[in-house]
Amino acid sequence: MEIIRRIVIEPFEGLYAKILGFLPNFLASVLIFTVGIVLAVVLRALFFRIFSALGMDKFFERTGTVELLKKGGLGDSVAALLSKLLGWGILIVFVVIAMRTLDIPIVERLLERFLLYFPNIFVAALIVLFGYLAGNFLGRAALIASVNAGIRISGTIGKFVKYTVFVLAGTMSLEQLGIGRDTVIIAFALVFGGVVLALSISFGLGGRDIAKEYLERKLKGEEGKDEISHL
Amino acid sequence: MNSIILRTEIQERISEIGAADILVGIPSFNNARTIGHVVKAVQAGFVKYFPDKKCVLVNSDGGSTDGTMEVVQDTAVDDSSSIFFYHRKGPIFKISTPYHGIPGKGSAFRTIFQIAEALNVKACAVVDSDLRSITPEWIELLIKPVIHDEFDYVAPLYHRHKYDGTITNSIVYPLTRALYGKRVRQPIGGDFGFSGRLARYYLTKDVWGTDVAKYGIDIWMTTVAVANGFKVCQAFLGAKIHDPKDPGADLSAMLYQVVSSAFGLMDLYSEMWKAVTNSEPVPTFGFQYAVGLEPVAVNVERMIERFSLGVRELMDIWKEVLPGEVVEYLRGIGEKPIDSFHLSDGVWVEIVYSFARAFHTQMITKEHLLKSLTPLYIGRTASFVKETWESGASEVEEKIEGLCRTFEEKKSFIVEKWDT
Known about the structure:
Distance between the termini of chain B: 48 Å
Largest sheet of chain A: none
CATH architecture of the largest domain in chain B: Alpha-Beta Complex
Shape of chain A: elongated
Distance between the termini of chain A: 109 Å
Number of domains of chain B: 2
Strand content of chain A: under 5%
Largest interface: A-B, 29 and 48 residues
Largest sheet of chain B: 8 strands, mixed
Radius of gyration of chain A: 30 Å
CATH class of the largest domain in chain B: Alpha Beta
Structural class of chain A: mainly alpha
Number of strands of chain B: 10
Number of helices of chain B: 18
Oligomer: heterodimer
Strand order of the largest sheet of chain B: 3-2-1-4-7-5-8-10
Structural class of chain B: alpha/beta
């Protein structure tokens, strides 16, 4: 009987005691998480109204940010986007507090490591977002400038600029995350250097005559044969 | 005199002069080769037509390194007694100063307006520093309507080669005429007369950090004068011949600055121009005569190639701005052989109005939007050149008149779409 009590009943009693001890933390944690969800939803709606009332969308329209976001595939208004981000931020804060309330050492250690790594994820995401927007913007600027300069491969130039910025942003974000840090940088340098070298060689050798003709035209000022005065 | 943009020595010079009746400003940047002739013409104009008025010549320079300011200071009318019946009662004052602000013609004008205000002048004029055809009569024609007839703004009227001033002929003149209802033929002519009152009014506007500080100044001056009810007229100055520039080098930037100023003013004065339904001529001074003009070389084939390149590469941007039927029309003519290339007045008007609306609603970054207009403008110019290759000056003028009428007829297009 004593053996049964020590092998079966005592561990169950211990487990029961632990569950009883853990239950308040768990319930507090669930409560905090629920409050977090409600608060995030309410504050998101509140921030959206405040941002809209402040005319934030019109301001960002004037600065060209809305267009950049649209071009980048983000259809939301700036007010909606910012209020969503704030809502998610609030929810994340409550999730962290709720998990700490559980008072489980392994969860705390994981949480600590995640919190230390989280800024890297945030910065990497920002780099990717900025790179995507800037790539589209600069690609279009290069395209328009090349067309106005009469360059026949304008489309290629625009795409080259756009994807170069994308690749650069991708490389930077991977570096920020610490994924294959040296490998990514070396690979990027090799690929980018290779592309530039290939272009230089192909322009210098393959297009030697075109380059010569172009430079001659530029240096001799024969480019602007039209004498139309536009103004 | 208490201006933060005028140098101390200029403020002292202004104090010495005190007040003046007439001021003529010459903006310059590396124009040593041509400015001497302009200065002589202005001085001769003062001597010949305003001998009893206190006159000041102001050179507002953008930091020339070729001695432009020295040329201005050293230039005088050689032997006035052999040319003029009358001698001046007083000296002609000269001020030559570098301007502050964004490099550009508008910033140069701002300094001229500041000096005009400080000297409390009655009448002002501005003339370009690269003019080869300016005569003393230009000063009389630009200043007298202000002094004797109480006009506030005197726009120039020139005889120009049929392919000279194509931005004026295809966009700025028809657009401003349709919008504001005044037929000012050269709204961005570059040489204007205006009253001291209007100069002071210009200075009240905070536009000197925008494209108005650059090429946009001319359309801004004209539009502000017309839209605010100042008395406007034009004076026939003869031929406009200026120092040859590299015309293709910065077309896109030039078009951007002029058109963004014109479209920006549409935003500012939208309530005024929406109410205007037709246009009327403005009083014109000066004896009009035909003048011989130098031929202009044009490479139509290359212009059409530029347009077709735009059709191939920029259609995605244009699709966001232009009506569907215009997009299809452009695709069609982009594929046609050069011989049958033609961009009609009606389509061109819809293109300009659609870009104005896109500028207003900020559909796309303004710089991208207006720079993407360049191939369309080149296409329109090529079409105009093809249509008028054999035409004389009066036929060309009739063609431009036709375009203006189309702008006026289709004005409802922009009025209806402006706020939607």
